[in-house]
Design a protein that fits this description.
Elements (H helix, E strand, L loop, with lengths): L4 H37 L3 H8 L1 H4 L2 H14 L2 H4 L4 H9 L4 H4 L5 H9 L1 H8 L1 H7 L2 H13 L4 H8 L1 H4 L2 H14 L10 H9 L4 H4 L5 H9 L1 H8 L1 H7 L2 H10 L8 E6 L2 E3 L6 E9 L4 E9 L5 E8 L7 E2 L4 E3 L2 E8 L9 E10 L5 E12 L3 E2 L2 E4 L1 E4 L16 H9 L20 H9 L6
Length: 447
């Protein structure tokens, strides 16, 4: 294309200016794009607070009350009061919060008083700003809802690397088994756990079977101490179901610990010459192929009648004679080719005749639960007691029969002002014809 000299001169003069304009436009465009990207990457106030305090906010005790607290704080009448100055006043005297928010949960007041992590969070200027922003409160509540995990899941995520340590894995099975013991569970309160952290040797007093290697870890390993001191871990230690869930997450197979119990565990004695039937049951078992035990009873209260094995074991059963000597019943059964297919069932049913309706105990001893190959399992035994039935006042002499001896006993104290209590059959403070007729109305009964 042909350009005149004036046109070429004009283009030559404009070229630097055009380049400058283009450069400015590029810079402005880049700045806008950078600004857009920066805004997209900048976390919201709620996200900042959640990221900073995620572990605390997802603690089970916090999750139980905090979303409710956030809902109350959102109310317009409460928003007016949520200045940094008011928040600091409440931190200095948590009971003041009831003045500003009367229906606040008392558990939150306790947290404000006792939990240093909660106090530190409330002193954070970002958190204070969030409390004064309804939209930010709603976003935080949504984040809490989205990120809720079970107690075991949170602890697993928090200590995933810790659980992979070989020295920790080596102790885990025995520790989990020990702390699930029903007799140990009531002892696992935070104060006891903290006392163990301070002085690991006292753990042996609560858990004699705990591995010595675990005691050494508690004494020497800061990471183990931090783990045991975690409030969420305290909650897990007090919850057998949470322990099982954590074990599943860790792919730790729980050791088998069989329960053998007498059923019922407590029963009122039947009357003399009536029958008492009990069963001996098994629970939490696996691959059982044989059992044996001795049941001790009070021969002055009960007379052995019969023992029948249940159908818990199957296959080729080896007969073992039941032996009854004095106050002991020895029994056993073995399957030589088949293991039990269920974890619970009835081992034996035992029948007694009552010879005296009184209190006594049924006690299992020398209990062995075995698997094919001669392996035995740890066993927890649950015994039983027979309760004395309520005394019938017309059996005046307490021999289990209402007969002429009861009538003559009452008659011998007839009209007496100092009669023994048992002669006053109807309990009206007098021994008279009413007492005699009450005994006579039950004459011939056995009680």
């Amino acid at each position: 294309m042909y350009y005149s000299d004036k046109t070429r001169t004009f283009f030559n003069r404009c070229q630097p200016f055009s380049f400058l304009c283009l450069s400015v436009l590029c810079i402005i465009g880049a700045s806008i794009l950078f600004s857009i990207n920066s805004d997209a990457q900048e976390p919201s106030l709620a996200e900042k607070v959640f990221e900073k305090y995620q572990t605390l906010l997802l603690r089970e005790d916090i999750l139980a009350i905090f979303p409710i607290v956030l809902e109350k704080i959102k109310k317009p009448e409460n928003q007016q009061l949520l200045t940094p100055g008011t928040i600091l006043l409440v931190l200095d005297d948590p009971d003041l919060l009831k003045t500003f928010v009367p229906d606040i949960d008392d558990k939150f007041i306790v947290l404000l008083k006792e939990d240093q992590e909660v106090q530190a969070m409330l002193r954070d200027t970002d958190f204070q700003a969030l409390l004064q922003d309804v939209n930010a409160i709603e976003e935080l509540a949504s984040l809490l809802e989205q990120n809720q995990q079970s107690l075991a899941e949170r602890v697993f995520e928090r200590y995933k690397d810790f659980f992979q340590r070989e020295d920790v894995k080596g102790n885990l099975q025995e520790v989990l088994l020990a702390i699930k013991d029903p007799e140990i569970q009531p002892l696992l309160i935070p104060a006891t756990i903290q006392a163990v952290v301070d002085n690991p040797d006292i753990l042996k007093a609560f858990l004699p079977d705990i591995p010595d290697t675990f005691i050494t870890l508690l004494k020497e390993d800061a990471e183990v101490k931090a783990f045991i001191s975690d409030p969420d871990v305290h909650l897990i230690l007090q919850d057998p179901a949470a322990i099982d869930e954590l074990a599943a997450l860790l792919a730790v197979e729980q050791p088998i610990h069989v329960i053998v119990r007498i059923v019922p565990s407590a029963v009122e004695s039947p009357r003399v010459r009536e029958q008492l039937v009990i069963t001996i049951d098994i629970a939490d078992a696996k691959d059982v192929s044989g059992y044996q035990a001795i049941l001790e009873f009070d021969p002055t209260a009960l007379k052995f009648v019969s023992l029948t094995h249940g159908i818990y074991l199957s296959g080729q059963l080896l007969p073992v004679e039941t032996k009854v000597e004095n106050n002991q019943i020895s029994f056993a059964q073995i399957s030589i080719d088949t293991a039990a297919t269920t974890s619970s069932g009835t081992l034996v049913t035992i029948m007694f005749e009552v010879i005296s309706a009184k209190a006594s105990k049924l006690t299992l001893s020398e209990v062995i639960i075995g698997a094919l190959g001669g392996v035995s399992f740890p066993v927890t035994v649950e015994n039983a007691e027979i309760l004395e039935p309520p005394r019938k006042p017309w059996d005046v002499n307490g021999d289990g029969k209402v007969n002429i001896l009861d009538l003559t006993y009452v008659a011998s104290h007839f009209g007496s002002d100092n009669a023994p209590p048992e002669a006053d059959v109807n309990g009206d403070g007098k021994v008279n014809i009413l007492d005699l007729t009450l005994v006579a109305s039950h004459f011939g009964e056995e009680v």
